[in-house]
């Protein structure tokens, strides 16, 4: 089954950056840390013209125009990078030194005097350099003999060695945000020494070794064709720099290693091993924690977008997405991940891109090679270069894109196969609140629909009976994000048959397991383990109400589904000691009343499933005509709150129950402060003279206790009621009360 690119969840940026393509006169460099694109071409016999384009709005440079300056032509440029404040440019022309140029301001004029710094270690070769996050301009040299950390003083145009570490190095990987360098060593390049670079410091963590696959001797030729590498010690292929990356997933740093295998029956396969690095505030060794299983081999590239690992396959022109936070099979040591969708999808052009592309000013003559139209560029071109986390550069076409994830397309592909897995995946994506709510609504519709789902939802149709546990699982995930204390995630519901983990048409994961060393489990032995991860933009209680519950159901079945959702969400929140907002309870009460489930409502209130609150109490008061006991439920709720005495008094007086109001005021110690005329007015208007007499007498007794006299004061505004009492019961009765 082939899918069109319009269905893809991974799309290239709407407006690509356009630049002068690579040619004999033009070189292009990209700094993934600062997102700067450098175009270098010869200006004259003695100088080079450098144009800098920034690819993100957060850069100190102006993202709306190119910034140009000239450098002396002192040889071929291998690399160039700006410091964090864009005031020092580092240029590498040789393998033994790096040159530096000062700038007055970010994007300002360049200094005419350059200065350089060679390696301190004799005979060392510079493999690369990186600006660190230190505030005092520190630059790190990575050489084949180790690390050298220099402090740059631009005012003096000098550098000072502040720290060094000896370590044989074949090549290295760098992660700027984590300030971590991974140095590869050994004859197979599979031994790694991790260094944490801080302010004038180098901290080394214990070295570890990456296990490499053994290639069958009869398949070495096909192995080289698939992997593109030579065979080293013991028939194992040496690890290549392009097959290793450092990436941060859900706040945790990982070293990723692409391992290419040759299948005994022919063909190739790949797995990506993730080695979790210890956090900065904890001790420990790196450990192999996750394995991304790919049934295809060949030339691959990796991108990290929204905590998804995208593996791009050039020959198939498809991209596979992995999410390590989703439930995965585990043997107790490793978690084995399959792509999140059954079918790999190609990268897709965004529609707006075909109409308009971002073009920054370019210097040069009209005879220079012009950038190609983005829509006409071949996808997965041989000239594509991937930069972590999410950048693709086509130097020959003169285009730079960022990859973005479309949660709506991801939902459309995942939901029919496994709604629970789909909701978990959407829950972890940024800017996916609407899509998560839509998936929940779609699941509710499966519960209430009397007609069978569409053909596209064939698997979902088979799992209608499992919608309830899937909904409960999704609501548990939402509640877990609101809990201040992290806790274990809920166990995922079983996926509906056929299993969405069967990605190969003629191969099962267990068949491939024997190649990669993955343990083979029976159905009873399989375990599913989720990685605790904080969602970047979780669906809150307010969001759930606005996007899912605010629109009133139309049928009784929809009301029942709404009641189930709210009760499950309340249960999940209560399990994690998260306060439930009153509007969820209000919606629950209305749904129960609409469907005539008054007995259930009564029980939920009595057993405190519905928490006490003034809004709920007021809502219950309004239901007295439909369910008379709701009135007493409301009063009991207000009494338990302890902060609704005024409301209870008003309710009792509005019903003419003055004696009940007096008893209540005495029970809460508020009788001495209530206005006398307020009680007498209600008693008089009721027409019950016995009640009027009792209230009048109680107030006179209060006067006698507080003032020493039973008489009312003019400030009490009770003259009318005193006269009515005397007229009804006689002056003698009034005098007897005053004598008390």
Description:
The protein is α+β, with helices and mostly antiparallel strands. Among the domains are: 407-449 and 468-480 and 525-580, no CATH class; 642-739. The protein is built from 19 helices and 32 strands. A seven-stranded mixed β-sheet has the order 20-21-22-23-28-27-32. Helix 4 (419-427) packs antiparallel against helix 5 (433-448). The longest helix is centred in the C-terminal third of the chain and has 20 residues, at 556-575. It starts with 9 loop residues before the first strand and ends with a helix. Mean pLDDT is 79; it is low at 216-229, 352-368, 458-463 and 498-527. This is Mic1 domain-containing protein.
Characteristics:
single chain, 740 residues, alpha+beta, 7-stranded mixed beta sheet, 19 helices, 29% helix, 25% strand, Mic1 domain-containing protein, RMC1_C, RMC1_N
């Amino acid at each position: 089954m082939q899918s069109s690119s319009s269905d893809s969840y991974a799309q290239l940026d709407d407006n690509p950056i356009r630049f002068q393509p690579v040619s004999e006169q033009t070189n292009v460099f990209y700094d993934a840390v600062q997102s700067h694109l450098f175009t270098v071409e010869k200006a004259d016999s003695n100088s080079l013209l450098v144009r800098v384009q920034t690819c993100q709005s957060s850069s100190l440079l102006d993202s709306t125009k190119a910034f140009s300056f000239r450098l002396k032509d002192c040889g071929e440029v291998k690399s160039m990078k700006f410091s964090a404040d864009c005031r020092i440019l580092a240029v590498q022309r040789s393998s033994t030194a790096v040159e530096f140029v000062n700038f007055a301001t970010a994007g300002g004029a360049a200094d005419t005097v350059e200065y350089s710094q060679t390696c301190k270690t004799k005979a060392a070769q510079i493999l690369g350099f990186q600006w660190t996050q230190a505030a005092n301009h520190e630059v790190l040299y990575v050489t084949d003999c180790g690390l050298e950390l220099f402090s740059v003083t631009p005012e003096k145009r000098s550098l000072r060695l502040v720290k060094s570490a000896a370590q044989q190095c074949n090549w290295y990987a760098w992660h700027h945000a984590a300030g971590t360098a991974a140095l590869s060593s050994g004859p197979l390049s599979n031994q790694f020494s991790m260094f944490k670079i801080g302010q004038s410091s180098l901290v080394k963590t214990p070295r570890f070794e990456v296990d490499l696959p053994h290639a069958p001797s009869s398949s070495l030729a096909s192995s080289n064709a698939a992997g593109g590498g030579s065979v080293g010690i013991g028939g194992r292929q040496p690890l290549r720099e392009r097959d290793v990356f450092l990436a941060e997933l859900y706040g945790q740093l990982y070293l990723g290693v692409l391992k290419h295998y040759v299948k005994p029956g022919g063909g190739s396969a790949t797995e990506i091993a993730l080695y979790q690095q210890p956090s900065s505030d904890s001790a420990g060794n790196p450990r192999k924690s996750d394995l991304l299983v790919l049934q295809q081999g060949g030339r691959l590239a990796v991108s990290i977008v929204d905590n998804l690992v995208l593996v791009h396959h050039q020959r198939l022109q498809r991209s596979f997405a992995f999410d390590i936070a989703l439930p995965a099979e585990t043997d107790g040591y490793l978690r084995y991940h399959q792509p999140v969708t059954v079918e790999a999808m190609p990268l897709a052009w965004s529609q707006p891109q075909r109409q308009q592309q971002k073009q920054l000013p370019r210097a040069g003559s009209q005879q220079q090679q012009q950038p190609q139209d983005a829509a006409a560029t071949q996808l997965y071109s041989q000239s594509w270069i991937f930069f972590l986390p999410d950048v693709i550069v086509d130097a020959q076409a003169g285009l730079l894109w960022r990859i973005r994830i479309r949660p709506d397309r991801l939902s459309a592909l995942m939901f029919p196969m496994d709604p629970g897995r789909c909701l978990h995946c959407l829950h972890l994506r940024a800017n996916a609140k609407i899509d998560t709510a839509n998936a929940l609504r779609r699941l509710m519709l499966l519960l209430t629909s009397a007609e069978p789902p569409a053909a596209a939802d064939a698997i979902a149709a088979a799992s209608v009976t499992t919608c309830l546990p899937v909904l409960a699982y999704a609501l548990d995930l939402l509640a877990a994000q609101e809990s201040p204390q992290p806790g274990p995630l809920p166990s995922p519901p079983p996926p509906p048959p056929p299993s969405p983990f069967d990605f190969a048409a003629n191969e099962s994961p267990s068949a491939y397991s024997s190649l990669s060393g993955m343990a083979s489990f029976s159905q009873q032995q399989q375990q599913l383990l989720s990685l605790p991860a904080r969602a970047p933009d979780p669906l809150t209680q307010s969001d759930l109400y606005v996007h899912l519950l605010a629109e009133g159901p139309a049928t009784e079945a929809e009301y029942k589904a709404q009641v189930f959702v709210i009760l499950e969400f309340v249960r999940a929140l209560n399990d994690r000691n998260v306060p439930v907002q009153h509007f969820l309870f209000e919606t629950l009460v209305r749904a129960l009343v609409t469907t005539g489930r008054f007995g259930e409502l009564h029980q939920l209130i009595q057993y405190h499933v519905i928490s006490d609150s003034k809004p709920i109490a007021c809502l219950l008061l309004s239901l007295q005509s439909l369910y008379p006991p709701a009135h007493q439920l409301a009063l009991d709720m207000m009494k338990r709150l302890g902060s609704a005495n005024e409301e209870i008094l008003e309710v009792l007086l509005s019903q003419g129950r003055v004696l009940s109001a007096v008893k209540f005021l005495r029970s809460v110690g508020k009788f001495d402060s209530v206005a006398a005329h307020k009680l007498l007015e209600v008693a008089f208007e009721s027409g019950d003279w016995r009640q009027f007499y009792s209230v009048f007498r109680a107030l006179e007794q209060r006067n006698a206790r507080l003032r020493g006299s039973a008489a009312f004061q003019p400030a009490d505004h009770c003259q009318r009621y005193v006269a009515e009492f005397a007229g009804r019961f006689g002056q003698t009765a009034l005098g007897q009360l005053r004598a008390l």
